[in-house]
Amino acid sequence: QQQSTGQYRTHIPAHLAQQLRQREQEQEQQDQMMLQHEQSQQQGHGSLVLKIQENGISVQEVAPQQPGQSPDQLTEGGEGGGRGRDVDNANNNNINNNNNVDDSRFDVPTDQPSQNGPNGLNSNNNNNRGGTEVLYQDGGNGQVPGGGQVIGGVAGAGLLNVSDIFSTTASVDFDAKLRSILNCHDRDYEPYIGQRGDFWVLKNYVRAEHGELRCHESITYTTHADYTFLDNLIPLLERWNAPVSLAMHAPGTDFQPTLNAIKYLRECLAESHLVRQFVTFHIYFSSKHIPKNVPKYEKVLEPPYNCSLPAPYFNVSSSQLYKTAKKLLYPVNVGRNIARDAAMTHFILASDIELYPNPGLVHKFLEMIARNEPVLQRKNPRVFPLSIFEVDSTSPVPRDKTELQELLRSGKAISFHKRVCSSCHGVPKSKEWIAANETDDLGVFHIGKRVGYFVHWEPIYIGTHADPHYDERLSWEGKSDKMTQGYALCVLDYDFHILDNAFLVHKPGIKVLKKDPKRAMLAAKTNQLIKKIIYPELQVMYGSRKGCAV
Where is this region: Disordered (predicted)? Predict the structure, then answer.
């Protein structure tokens, strides 16, 4: 039950999505029911509470508050309950009374939010962060009860199956609350052939079976690769278990092995159902290196791949690619932007395919957004960076923070690129983050800025479509490919909401600095391009801010 509930958070299967759309068509009826319920509540009836528990969802009825009765007395038998905890498991400092956060973890002063959060959502239930969590209380009074009688005709202890959530009359649910907070718009999922600068783009060329997605219902992992990196896709999916938008660079004769690799991943592995369900492939190539034949999208998977053959990417190095033979640079930021722009969800994690997230991140993040705590109501634009680590080649990829801490203590894990460019990926308050114990939910550990020691920080984060794009003139070989975007975030005064129990781990194997004269020469040329052309453009387009640098 826990697994199915978590999967509901990351992706709604097609038949359930259809029920959800039907439910939206009945919204007027639900509004009428809400009105009737409010009237009945005024006559002394209780309010309904939708809760998430470890093994499912429950609906509870709570007696109306009587004059002089405190919120924590609204439990069965009048006992106190519903006590929560702050982000760091410390005391909540009376958030219910004044909505003010007094927390030394946040260097940046926290503005006092209004009584109601964005879109009029009451934030008085922010301290309810224990194992049982209120997602929606239809009484609208902001109280967090600790008990109550389970109602709604649900068997057992009042737990709902995922399918039951569409038939319950528990009023507005988790899905509706997210939709209200984000106020995002849905995007199309149609195949499209177009041009992006010098590149042809086959958008949504091989589509995932999840079909159209609502903008609020998940997070999309957006990434890029050539086909030699596709061995990372299965371990990524096993941990992400949510939509992936993958832009494949496939110029010239790299095109056909790229298609073969996609077919192999979709058809020939025990985990192929994950690829079919979640991964949408886009392909791009330079107009000077068009493949000889590009099948129409409806024919791209024909004929099926011969699964008795090895994986097309098995034992293939980058030196064997058409790209390498033609001395082409890898257009990393073109791929990043293609994958990002094609994502249908409001939230996106623009990352690299070799970086694996800790499991359960998607639904925990959306639950955090739904709580809409005061720290999330700040006026500045924001992104949510993830701490990144490397593990040695003999170690398994840790699945949670506790396992990660054990590897760090034993020296089998280190911070990302510690031996290559530690300042590029150093995260503010990283020592405190590592020392802090793991908690069950997800929250903001610290709010940082890209200034001071972190002025060259290249964070990987959960953001949105509103964030600045990556400069497509920069290549992987020339390095510094995310620096200009980081500068734009700094000038725009972004807050970096560092998440407490979320992290990425690179494919096993610790990187060391290697001398590469050719790449060093390209890096020098890139630095000149940034200094003389891109940086002045950024100053014109975004302005400047003290402490910000490329």
Answer: 1-45, 62-141
